[in-house]
Amino acid sequence: MFDLIQKAIPFFILSLVIEWAAYFFLREQDEATGRGSPGYAAADTLTSLAMGLGNVLVNVVWKGTVLTLYAALYTLTPLRIPSDAWWAWVLLFFLDDFAYYWFHRVSHEVRLFWASHVVHHSSQHYNLSTALRQTWVPMTALPFWLLLPLLGFEPWMVLLAQSWNLLYQFFVHTERVGRLHPWIEAALNTPSHHRAHHGSNPLYLDRNYAGILIVWDRLLGTFQPETERVRYGLVHNIQTHNPVTVAFHEFAALWRDVRCARSWRDRLGYLFGPPGWKPAQAEERG
């Protein structure tokens, strides 16, 4: 099966090299104009590349499972969407992007999902290598696209839509691009919007979940424009470049909390409450 993301890897690497060169050769100009930025750091970039490679390797196996499940659902439903109809691809574009919005939003608002997604926010730098810092536990994404094969979209169409969404998002992970034309900023996820999403500033927390279209955030009340200098990373940064720790630190913390919880209600709260959730008695003591 054709894998758009794997085919795009050489373009990802070339884009990283070009962006790094821009930081290197324009550093004096950036400092003179007040555009100083963390840019690239060797250890941070190597960690991001390791996380990306691990994600690709995990998905070699995991995508087979996903494809099998999609095929089973597609077989069960009587609905069929013709793959040769132009409107089918337009409909798929919007449905896939809406599914991504909810996957991304839940990944920030439910700790079990956040334990997987936190990897992507763990860098205190913001450049194209950050886009490659992906989870080694991609299973949390599965529920959000199950409706599409049930609606009659062929499994390969759903996987292709997921790939073009991720491919688009790669290019919004940069500080080298400022704000774009107002019409573009109004409709699409842009580097400016996504910089705000990666901010640990209180203003930016849990905002701008867009994949390609920013309109979902505008309609559902989660939009925040980039207005103040973004502070990248987590509210409590993990201060490590060890890929294994980056991949699993939040799962380890979640397990400790669940294991030490005093009741099943508290265990469920830790699992399905928002990141930072604590039982009422713990908040009173704290």
TrEMBL record:
The chain crosses the membrane at residues 7-26, 46-73, 85-103, 142-161. GO terms for molecular function: glyceryl-ether monooxygenase activity; iron ion binding. It holds the Pfam family FA_hydroxylase. Keywords: Lipid metabolism, Membrane, Oxidoreductase, Transmembrane, Transmembrane helix. It is a multi-pass membrane protein. The keyword Lipid biosynthesis does not apply. GO terms for cellular component: endomembrane system; membrane. PANTHER family: ALKYLGLYCEROL MONOOXYGENASE, STEROL DESATURASE-RELATED PROTEIN. This is Fatty acid hydroxylase domain-containing protein. It comes from Deinococcus phoenicis.
